[in-house]
Amino acid sequence: MLNLILFGPPGSGKGTQATFLAERYDLVHISTGDLFRSEIKGETELGTLAKSYMNKGELVPDEVTIAMLRKKVESHPEASGFIFDGFPRTVAQAEALDTMLGEMKTQIEMLLSLSVDDEAIVQRILKRAETSGRADDADEGTIRNRINVYTENTTPVFDYYAEQERSSSIDGMGSIDDVTHRLFAALDAHCA
Ligand code: B4P
Questions:
Q1: pTM to 2 decimals?
Q2: What average pLDDT does the chain have?
């Protein structure tokens, strides 16, 4: 199995690039952000809870996020690998993911982290807000809070996998195409 984490600040291109990686390497793409948005759309209890955090740019509590992720992974027993997009976002989530994959006799092969300047992030997300209808995209204060939450709660996940020599930093600036080619090159070199 090839299991990857696509990592990076909000708006760094995780969702955009995960689609290309999933197709090229035949991976099941799991985005916790998309899963929460689907729960919100369905007006479920989980959706109502998630919305109260997401609209402020805060993280949804670990317990809830981990349970949802586990359910999704278990619904794909046929998978030849997974690409986790937007998960893990805390060290507790990373530990839970490692335990879950360990039970399946597999592990994370690589964490690919997209680096993008804060100002480019704000511009990308504000542009997306024109069409996304997402409350967490529309307000610059909320976007900056998401960046702060990433810096404080999520960047330790990069170090967690770096200690196991599995983290790799990729330049996320430039065109979508440029970034895709950098990701493919890094993975191909790793898997060669
Ligand atoms: P996500 O859905 O993961 O939101 P995101 O970080 O904004 O998405 P992403 O990074 O994938 O966006 P992309 O760059 O593709 O999370 C939303 C919220 O859900 C979180 O704030 C949190 O509340 C909650 N949540 C999710 N997972 C959680 C977890 N594990 N634990 C707790 N809470 C969790 O797209 C950005 C825009 O940039 C797009 O418009 C795209 O077209 C554009 N773009 C991409 N690449 C570009 C490039 N190279 N140049 C120019 N534009 C580019």
A1: 0.94
A2: 97
